[in-house]
Amino acid sequence: MAVAASIIGKERSVQARMASPSRFADKAFEWLTLAMALAVVVLIILIGWQLWIGSSVAIRKFGFHFLVTSTWDPVAEKFGALPFIYGTLVSSLIALLIAVPLGIATAAYLTELAPLWIRQPLTSLIEMLAAIPSVILGLWGIFVMIPWLRDYPFPWLKRFFGWTPFFSGPIYGPCMFAGGIIIAVMILPIITSVSREILRSVPDLQREAAYGLGATRWEATRIAVLSYAKKGLFGAVILGLGRALGETMAVTMVIGNTPQIAASLFKPGYTLASVLANEFTEATTDMYLQALFEIGLVLFGITILVNLLAQLLLRTIATTSATRAVQ
Amino acid sequence: MENLVMETPERTVMERMEKGTAPPPEAETPAACTFEVKNLSIWYGEKRAIDNVTLDVASNAVTAIIGPSGCGKSTFLRALNRMHELTPRTRMEGTVLLHGEDLYSNTIDPAIVRRRVGMIFQKSNPFPTMTIGENVVIGLRLNGVRNQRFLNERLEKSLRMAALWDEVKDDLHKPGTSLSGGQQQRLCIARALAVEPEVVLMDEPCSALDPIATAKIEELIYELKSKYTIVTVTHNMQQAGRISDYTAFMYLGRLIEFGPTTKLFTNPTEKQTEDYITGRFG
Known about the structure:
heterodimer; A: 327 residues; mainly alpha; MetI-like fold; two-stranded antiparallel sheet; 2 strands; 77% helix; flat; disordered C terminus; B: 282 residues; alpha/beta; 6-stranded mixed beta sheet; 4-stranded antiparallel beta sheet; 11 helices; 35% helix; globular
């Protein structure tokens, strides 16, 4: 009994020495982090609102026509954004078609197949690609990539796929396809590194399950790793798409900057981001500036819409597999 | 019919299916032993995990490997189907013969080894994107079996052998992960049995399960022994005593004692074994 009492006594003295938890500090921490989180939301809303204010006259004047007409004539003050919307979407799509398989395959190589000593250096190199300023990538596009594309891959594509509308017509050099390729180069690092993180998070137990059944490395990667990581990989693609839609400098330098809608990918195009970058300094009339603001609003809207759709799609996939589990 | 047959070096699924039962002991291997392990040593980098182990695994019996954590028992088990090679920077010496055939010869693909020597892991690991049915037959599909009728037969047979058929026969289209922990582990056993391996390795198959699920798996192991050779790792000595015919005690990478389970538990020859099974260390 004496021993027990002395232990309890000791405990009391330790308890007495400890400061009472500060309710104030805890609350302050909560409010501070809440404020930070809200700041981001407020920033997004403010940007959207500013774009709306800046383009309100144009919106009232052109209405819905702005989105569906193709004439872009600052002198006559006729503005239609359709070619830019088309250019943004098509160039981003081309970029995804190139960068997604490349990025995911690279990530799979880095996590599943590559010898250990090569993994870190290769990862660093790929991430370094993201550090290249986009204007330099654009210069490389103009002086190296476009001449090479014009001499080798484009004529080859035209010879074998010239019967489709996508690869027909004369080859100029700067074109929608070149724009898509340069965007692909720019979004490759993010798709690769996000995919790599996702594949690395697949539990080893899944890999072992596949190998234990006599799977080859490709089979184990397919049934245990890639299919387990499907949802995460989709997220990586959407992150890449978000980047692709907003890419400006390098695309502006290689896409040809001609507001037209053409089926052939060898024809020049124009994107929302490019027209903003090119024409803001020349916008001399109020209506011209208003139209450019509206272009900005459209780009803002498309980016948000794409992200919302992606999240919705992700949630649908999640709930269907969940209902399958319940049934 | 030929397209149904999965190529394995010795026998085919179909041949064995016709016989209906266990692989008979090979005539040329004396005393019906499945594995002959000779002077096996394994290193992870600089660390020696297995130190010169020699051991024969009897056919159609349960061999348990016991020992304190880190004694190399899991590594030893994984060396029997070359799973340890998935860990980078491993090195091995010695030989492992499966029915007299060298598992580590240059001409043998580790994928073939793992087809013949199935494995159950500490935690159940069904593929979450596949249904219960798909999980069971994935091994057959990987090996090129396409015939739907054959797959369905194997599906039912494997699930029955894993004592899971009655519980899941109406739910084959549900995801494998919708089952309880014990059911998932039996699903993994069914998945391993579907390719008709010659041996089933179990790496602490009950360590994540409650006592009732554990009892079911133990009962299952006892039944499977008539058709398969089973090697299991456990750190539960009572379990080793209940389910195994032979027990190997390992300590610090070395095989201290190996013999019939009853002898090892009642009359061990080594002092270390006695200390361990009486709970004096470990």
